[in-house]
Design goal:
Number of strands: 10
Helix content: 40-55%
Distance between the termini: 48 Å
Low-confidence stretches: 1-9
Mean pLDDT: 91
Strand order of the largest sheet: 1-2-10-7-8-9
Radius of gyration: 19 Å
Strand content: 5-15%
């Protein structure tokens, strides 16, 4: 731990006291998953050559319990607060997913009008939730890039703040609060942190947080589904690469290109960073297992991260302590999960 943290043991009460008076996110529970650990132990016992492996401790950082149902409350909330402090009288968002929902929630809390521009692919479930916070929804564009261009145009004309879903230092700073909470909740740095990556806002926040607190020996596993794997192709090429289209059901991973700020962490890594990509089938299987084990529904994007512990990710198998950021997501219902199970798991 670096000098800022050395010599003292932070507790969640301290973190709450240090939070901005109007912080829009909440500290979330870190729970140990004996259910997932038991699955891993059983799988290892049944796999040739793996019976001697120890059982890693699996901890779940439950950001699915944020007010807007995902980690987006952290970074998006901070970005909205700072826009308000700079005098903005309205907020715009270009996300019909969890970022848009977080802007709508934040605007409601701050008393600012919100317009969310969503692509045609946006979930009707999330759009309905966005409207319940009093935000205006504009459907424009085939994908996020086209919706974002329209949001830029409208926010510029209105002289209002555009809150980017993932590519802004305020977003990364807000998301880094996850690491501050982990410092208070764990006795030592975990071997591995597993998270989902779409545009890179959560990833960049966690990397910045790890560096700030001195947990640079912790490995980060960035998880995606096939057809939404823009980080994986960029990581492999060591250069920004755009996907031609998003073909995965994990629509909230739907940035065809990750934030350019990811590249320095890839090219000259100060923290070990690796990619984990699974088919939609494995994301759905992990959602289903997690619902059974912990009675919580999460989106396929989160299922991609969970697949690293429900599947056979080597970094998980070889770790003693693993933290999975359960990023959540509002765009799922029991009916949607049942339909995906019939499509992918029958």
């Amino acid at each position: 731990i670096n000098a800022e943290y050395m010599g003292k043991r932070l507790h969640l009460e301290d973190l709450v006291a240090q939070m901005r008076p109007t912080a829009l996110h909440v500290p979330t529970p870190l729970i140990r998953s004996f259910e997932i650990e038991a699955r891993l132990q059983n799988d290892n016992a049944n796999a040739a050559g793996l019976s001697r492996l120890g059982r890693p401790q699996i901890f779940l950082k439950m950001d699915a319990l944020q007010p807007s149902c995902s980690f987006k409350c952290r970074g998006v909330g901070l970005a909205c607060q700072r826009a308000a402090e700079r005098g903005s009288k309205a907020l715009f968002s270009s996300s019909g997913g969890n970022a848009g929902l977080a802007v709508a929630y934040s605007g409601n809390r701050l008393g600012l009008p919100v317009t969310v521009v969503t692509p045609l692919s946006a979930s009707a479930v999330v759009i309905d939730k966005i409207r319940k916070y009093g935000a205006e929804v504009v459907v424009q564009g085939q994908d996020w890039q086209e919706a974002h261009a329209e949001a830029i145009r409208r926010s510029t004309e209105a002289g209002a703040a555009l809150i980017h879903p993932f590519d802004h230092p305020d977003i990364w700073e807000g998301n880094s609060s996850i690491v501050d909470e982990l410092v208070a909740e764990l006795p030592a740095a975990p071997d591995t942190i597993v998270l989902a990556v779409g545009g890179g806002g959560l990833l960049l926040g966690v990397l910045e947080g790890l560096k700030r607190v001195g947990w640079t020996s912790t490995r980060v596993v960035a998880c995606e589904t096939e057809g939404a794997h823009s980080f994986a192709v960029t990581n492999a090429a060591k250069a920004l690469v755009s996907l031609p289209e998003i073909t995965s059901i994990a629509k909230t991973l739907g940035a065809r290109t990750v934030a350019a700020a990811c590249l320095p962490w890839i090219v000259e890594p100060s923290i070990l960073l690796e990619s984990w990509v699974v088919p939609d089938r494995e994301a759905v299987r992990s959602i289903s297992c997690f619902a059974s084990d912990h009675r919580v529904l999460v989106e396929p994007a989160c299922g991609a991260a969970l697949s690293a512990v429900y599947g056979r990710c080597d970094s998980v198998q070889q770790s003693s302590t693993v933290v999975v950021i359960v990023c959540g997501g509002a765009g799922i219902t029991p009916e949607m999960l049942s339909a995906w199970e019939r499509e992918f798991l029958a």
